[in-house]
Amino acid sequence: MPATSIVRHIAKGSIFIHLVLLPLFVLAVTLFAQHKITDQFFDEAKHHAKLIAKRIELSWPEKKAISHMLDREVALTNIVYVYIANSQGKILAQSSFIPSHRHFQEDSFFDQHQDGIFDISIPMSIRDQDSLPTRLYVGFNEERTKRAIQNLRLNLTLFTLIYILIALAITLASARKISSPLNKLRVAIQKSSNTLPDDEIHTSSNLHEIRALAQEINIMRKDLVSQAQKLRHQATHDILTGLPNRALCMDRISQAMALCQRKRKHFVLMLLDLDQFKEINDTLGHKAGDTLLEVTASRLIRIVRKSDSVARLGGDEFAILLPTADASQAAIVAQKALKSIQKPFHFEDHTLHIHASIGAAMYPEHGKTVGELLHSADVAMYHAKRGGHGFIMHHRNLSSGAAGSLALVSDLEAAIEQEEVIPYFQPKLDIRSQTITGVEVLIRWRHHKRGLLFPDDFIPAAENSNIINRLTLYVIKKAIQQSVEWLRGGLEVSVAVNISAKNLQQPNFAATVLSLLEKHTLPSRLLEIELTESAVLNDPELAKQTLSRLSQQNVHISLDDFGAGNTSLAHFLELPLDTIKIDKSFVRDIFRNPNQQSIVHRIIELAHALNLSTTVEGVEDEKALQLLTQLDADAIQGYVLCKPLMAREFEMWVKQQGIYQIRSGAGTASLQ
Prior knowledge:
The structure is a single chain. By secondary structure, the chain is an alpha/beta fold. The chain folds into 4 domains: about 5-150, Beta-Lactamase; about 200-235; about 235-400, Alpha-Beta Plaits (2-Layer Sandwich), CATH 3.30.70; about 420-670, EAL domain (TIM Barrel). The chain is about 50% helix and about 20% strand. The chain has 20 helices and 23 strands. Helix 9 (about 370-385) links the parallel strand 10 and strand 11 (about 390-395). Helix 1 (about 5-60) runs antiparallel to helix 3 (about 145-190) and helix 9 (about 370-385) crosses helix 10 (about 400-415). It is elongated and about 160 Å long. The two termini are about 55 Å apart. Residues about 665-670 have low confidence and may be disordered.
């Protein structure tokens, strides 16, 4: 609804009152006054007629005297005529003038017959010479009363018009008196948006309400500014300790980098971790842990300069930014921090001695981006904690891989327990039938500190430890559960899990997979196991036994990333394969290198000759799709269809694709 001004609102209300309600009121008053006038006329006429009758009765039967008296009444009053008649209509006495052209019609109310004369009759006590009863007939002139009514109407109409004009003028003046200071107040508020919060808004209006409104706006403005400041502080500071949080710390590191780039200087970033925090938190409770964090924050603030920054990154991890320090100065600050933290910590009846580990990195020597600098400091802190050194400045000989891998593996175990590893689904298209044959699931890890991690960030570390077996079975279970859910909803979608060499080395791997299929009641044809060349070549005989058992139960087997290695397809002839997946590297260069087209075509022909289907990975545009169609590929997957989607997004995508129909086939759930 469009906004309107106060003046217009008040004017509309005033017009409604004065042009509608007031005229109705005046009309009612007019009708009431008119009724009063006519009633008074009627009563006076009756009373006058009765007085005449009494005077006639006193003078009866002196008809000459009576006629003279009646003429005087006609001459001196508003009587038009008057006469006396018996019951037979014989006139016994009369005034000199009696209208001869009209017939007597008695009026019950004013102007009943609209002839200008009010006719009434009253009985008399006298009788004529024949003893017949008599009546007095009188006609009163209505014109004077009509003029009085007309004057009344005219006066009330003029009064109403004058009143309306004056009222509207007063209303508009009052409305402007209200709107003018409000407009000035609005302008003042707009100008105040660029002023300091302590600058108050003033108004020159003498209206109490406007002044009160200005005061309330000043109060509200200060409250809003205060709330905004609190929200900004909460967004950039840790609630428990009041220190800058990770976001503000990252921003300050970026600012320090920009400053040092201009002035060609360096700065130091230190990461501090409390060594016994978890034990204290688990033993004495979260209240003790929170108190320890607060005490640690206050101690760290006291040992740094005003130009330095202390931040809490999360948990028991703190950061200290020294924007003007070098390595030696950073070592001094680190020793002060360690010494301060090692002071006894008192909680209720307990006295605790806390130790910390600090890792430091210098910009730009140990990292030219925020991420690189944090990583270097984190590696140094890991080595300080592992070796019990207290403080270590990063240097080239430190093994970042060991620290990162161990931390990732530890976090990954917890992530599997808490289901933080999420499956994403990318469909595969059967080129000939233009139907979706299944999906490839690309897992993502929602890390509590590092955000969304892709497989390349954590799969290598997992494959170097036994956690890969647990992760593979977790992904197989999630893939089976999702396929079952789709199947119950009328959507038949098969999935496959990319397994590693360590999975094939587990004697009970096939039995565990088949047990999961039976437990969740998923037909085995809707599961595909996908493996790489290297996974098979590590132990070909064991791989053949495991894959054969799965294949015998109708589990689909695919060879992934074929062509990326140097092995020949002949090495895999004894395996129960169903599909060859051609590596995306061939598609990437397929237009720039004509030989690539020939290679892809030969792979497809060889696979068909061995009764194997082919799927080409990494297809990103229609041009590549058309070429692969000409090369007789069976299926494709890639961004030409869509990006990897979460389960609900995939369901919506399927419904939106009118030309694509899900059919039974082999999809892929991959750890890549």
